């Protein structure tokens, strides 16, 4: 466990067991864990935020490596010292980082809309 993340390894296991009802078929499904997919090729553009101290960091980085190697359009933001979902929860990261993340998300969505749908603001 990383000391500054609110999700511990044990907590993550409890969440996973509850989400999957502890069924291996569900736990290994790419719908539950996208890194389990045979391929990520053809996936839509992805915006990924990684907290530097989050318990899931190494798993997220493996996913990013796999997606990147398979040609997925990725935008990745790593924020050292931050926990899981820092970009979404002001009580974790503070209002300034959440506001910055909101701007990053808005810019990403606008770029994807323009690039893939021909829609611009």
What do you see in this structure?
The protein has 121 residues and is mainly alpha-helical. It has one domain (9-117): 3-Layer(aba) Sandwich (Rossmann fold), CATH 3.40.50.1820. The chain contains five helices and two strands, in the order H-H-E-H-E-H-H. The protein has helices at 9-20, 24-27, 57-69, 90-93, 95-117, and strands at 46-51, 74-79. The protein has a two-stranded parallel ribbon with strand order 1-2. Helix 3 links the parallel strand 1 and strand 2 (74-79). The longest helix is centred in the last third of the chain and has 23 residues, at 95-117.
Describe the secondary structure blueprint for this structure:
Layout lengths: L8 H12 L3 H4 L18 E6 L5 H13 L4 E6 L10 H4 L1 H23 L4
Parallel strand pairs: 1-2
CATH homology group: Alpha/Beta hydrolase fold, catalytic domain
Taken from the alpha-carbon principal axes, the silhouette is globular
Helix content: 40-55%
Order of helices and strands: HHEHEHH
Number-wise, the strands total 2
CATH fold type: Rossmann fold
Structural class: mainly alpha
| Count of runs of 4 or more consecutive helical residues | 5
Q: In terms of per-residue confidence, which ranges show pLDDT below 50 for 5 or more consecutive residues?
A: none
Q: Examine the secondary-structure arrangement and name the CATH architecture.
A: 3-Layer(aba) Sandwich
Quaternary state reads single chain
CATH class: Alpha Beta
**Largest beta-sheet details:** 2 strands, parallel
Question: Which range does the strand content fall in?
Answer: 5-15%
Count of the separate structural domains: 1
């Amino acid at each position: 466990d990383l000391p500054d993340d609110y999700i511990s390894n044990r907590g993550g296991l409890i969440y996973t067991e509850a989400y999957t009802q502890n069924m291996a078929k569900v736990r290994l499904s790419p719908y539950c864990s996208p890194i389990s997919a045979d391929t990520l090729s053809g996936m839509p553009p992805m915006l990924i935020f990684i907290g530097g101290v989050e318990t899931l960091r190494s798993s997220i980085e493996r996913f990013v490596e796999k997606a990147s190697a398979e040609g997925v359009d990725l935008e990745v933001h790593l924020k050292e010292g931050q926990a899981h979902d820092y970009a979404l929860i002001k009580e974790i990261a503070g209002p300034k980082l959440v506001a910055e993340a909101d701007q990053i998300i808005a810019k990403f969505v606008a770029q994807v809309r323009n690039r893939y749908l021909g829609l611009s603001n």
